[in-house]
Amino acid sequence: MAVSTVSTVPGTPGASRMAPGTYTAGEEMCPYRLVLEHVTSRWGVLVLMELLDRPYRFSELRRTIGRVSEKMLTQTLQTLERDGLVHRDAKPVIPPRVDYSLTDLGREAAEQVRALALWTERRMDDVQRAREAYDSRKNDATATQG
What we know:
The chain has a three-stranded antiparallel sheet with strand order 1-3-2. Strand 2 and strand 3 form a beta hairpin. It has helices at about 25-30, 30-40, 40-55, 60-65, 70-80, 105-145; strands at about 55, 85-90, 95-100. It is mainly alpha-helical.
């Protein structure tokens, strides 16, 4: 059965403009897919891996991750907070201070993401060889057709 995945991260393809707590048919049928999408998104992976080391303030998290816009990082953190993976601690001081850390659930997810990242690092040479073999076969097929 095909199920469409709907993102709750505004500005991403397929993003939902629905209020938090409302669901599409796809979410009701496969809610785990939505969480998987959040955890494995480009910025979600990086946020989770960084927060495994320690809590961060927004600006230092943005600097550490690099090349993420303020808007995208805000949306990613909000999504991960809504999913129960990230804790936002706003301190009532001047200037305002907000720290982000992982919840126990977030730490568990981040450890899984880190395991995948470590596997990728270990197996990158194999992936590179596979890519080169694929490209060689493709180029040979193109050459014989032309």
